[in-house]
Specification:
7-stranded mixed β-sheet, 16 strands, alpha/beta, 17% strand, 515 residues, single chain
Length: 515
């Protein structure tokens, strides 16, 4: 047999394995997963947040099966991204309800019908097998554009429930046909192929035999368990991310402005302390994505010891929309935010940290909610559709404990009101009282509007720990924790007994809503 025929036969065998994996996965999803639609939506949102999806970027879904995940991809991308869905099962026909905008292809090999094409992003669910994973990933590498990214979700072979189910299934002649790779094997494999920015993390403790009634509890606990040393190895799946070189990719400059009522209405307040590496990229991207919305950008330099002030002064000289505030001691992010709020003159005021530059595409969700009429919109790190990577476990535990106690004290339902990513009507900013000099000001800006009766909506955002080129966060849990509990106690006194520092309630136009 010639070498060419041998390679063709190997490719056919490898593709057949993909078809088997695809059929097995779809069958399991439909028979065993009581929260399938929710799970696939979580994963689609995670994909969108991790790659910071922009309109017109191309998406390739490998092993699309019956289009179950494809529909969720289409939903979270707002129909703005070309999606190519490829099935390796020859018996699959195009799903009837799949919109014509989605390209649906059958493939008996890779690249097969994709030969000569390339994509910005490739995503797949439970396809990598020990028998063909190197071949699959090598083809994925070739199908990506330079700088393109791949997101895979794979079953975790260390999961106890999976091990028990496999053991029992053998007695009924239903042996699992998959040969799964564990996390170290996956990480080593993607590194050997030539990918960069690689990580393989344990993900998702919300799996069968979980019932729908237990989803809420386990979904909340999952965030903690995914970041708990040792326990996280028992997660249901492994999330894989990799990027084709180069590391730095020029992102397309495209306007994300679509609401007429927000044009020229947004003041952006950005507290800065030793942020010389971050402030210019953030301002540049803000102007590129949301320039038509911007009334002003207010960087507040909180007595930086590096060259932050010089960078801000240069930006202000170049564009009159940049209206800096330079503080005098004492320092404090709460003081910086309060100073920025005082000089802001836009109809809406957006506050954000300097290291939010990568998640700017998701901020359009905040603007959507403001256009719906909400008084306050908060970027929630702990919503059901958020993705947290490398988030410190102590901060997760304290954050969840704080919010659980706050919900009990105030008899309200919310998930994450202490993030500094907030969009508020000017009236709200003028009526809240800020007393905290440090990070606990974020608890005041989150809880006060809700307790005063303003309409509040939480939207999911991603949180990925700072990369080395972004500097070091100034947040210190032990140092700032006391301020949060002080805010909680004072707000409780005001709510229950009507005494204390904070103002009385206002009327709201819409109910609180979270995602």
């Amino acid at each position: 047999m010639s070498k060419k025929l041998m390679i063709a036969e190997q490719n056919t065998q490898a593709t057949n394995i993909l078809g088997i994996r695809e059929q097995y996965r779809d069958r399991y999803w439909k028979r065993r997963d009581p929260i399938l639609k929710d799970r696939l939506l979580w994963r689609a949102q995670s994909f969108r947040h991790m790659v910071h999806l922009l309109p017109n970027q191309t998406i390739l879904e490998l092993g699309c099966g019956q289009g179950l995940f494809t529909r969720q991809l289409l939903h979270v991308s707002r129909g703005e991204n070309p999606i190519t869905a490829v099935t390796f099962n020859p018996d699959n026909s195009r799903p009837e309800d799949l919109p014509s905008s989605v390209e649906f292809l059958h493939a008996s090999s890779i690249p097969g019908p994709l030969d000569g094409r390339s994509f910005d992003f490739i995503v797949a669910m439970d396809l990598l097998d020990k028998r063909n994973s190197a071949w699959v990933l090598q083809n994925v590498y070739e199908l990506l554009k330079p700088g393109g990214q791949v997101i895979f979700y794979e079953s975790n072979p260390w999961n106890i429930v999976l091990k028990v189910r496999r053991f029992i299934s053998q007695f009924f002649g239903q042996k699992d046909p998959r040969r799964l790779l564990n996390r170290p094997e996956l990480y080593e494999l993607i590194s050997e192929i030539g990918f960069i920015r690689n990580f393989a993390v344990f993900n998702d403790f919300v799996y069968a035999p979980l019932t729908r009634q237990m989803v809420w509890l386990l979904r909340n606990l999952s965030i903690i368990l995914e970041n708990a040393s040792g326990i996280k190895t028992l997660a249901g799946s492994i999330l894989i991310h990799a990027q084709k070189p180069p590391r730095v990719v020029e992102r397309p400059q495209i306007s994300l402005c679509e609401h007429e009522q927000l044009r020229g209405a947004i003041s952006v307040v950005i507290p800065c302390h030793n942020e010389e590496m971050n402030i210019e990229p953030l301002v540049t991207r803000l102007k590129g994505f949301f320039g038509e919305y911007l009334h002003e950008i207010i960087p507040v330099d909180d007595n930086s010891r590096d060259s932050t002030r010089e960078v801000i002064e240069r930006l202000a000289d170049q564009d009159p929309i940049i209206k800096p505030v330079f503080r005098t001691p004492p320092n404090g992010v709460g003081r910086a935010i309060a100073d920025g709020y005082r000089v802001a003159t836009g109809k809406y005021i957006l506050s954000m940290d300097c290291d939010f530059q990568h998640l700017l595409p998701e901020i359009r969700d905040l603007f959507d909610a403001a256009a719906e009429g909400y008084d306050v919109v908060v970027g929630s790190r702990f919503s059901r559709h958020s993705v947290l990577l490398n988030y410190p476990l102590p901060k997760i535990v304290v954050n969840r404990g704080f919010h659980a106690l706050a919900q009990i004290l105030f008899l309200r339902s919310f998930r994450d009101l202490t993030n500094n990513l907030k969009l508020m009507r000017r009236e709200v900013v003028e009526n809240i009282q800020l007393t905290q000099p440090g990070f606990a000001v974020n608890a005041e800006t989150g809880l006060q509007p809700l307790l005063m009766g303003y309409s509040v909506k939480e939207v999911p955002i991603s949180w990925i720990n700072r990369t080395p080129d972004m500097g070091v966060s100034s947040f210190r849990l032990v140092k700032v924790g006391g301020g949060y509990w002080q805010v909680l106690f004072r707000l409780w006194l005001k709510t229950v007994f009507g005494i204390g520092y904070y103002p009385k309630g206002k009327k709201s136009l819409a109910p609180h809503k979270q995602l």
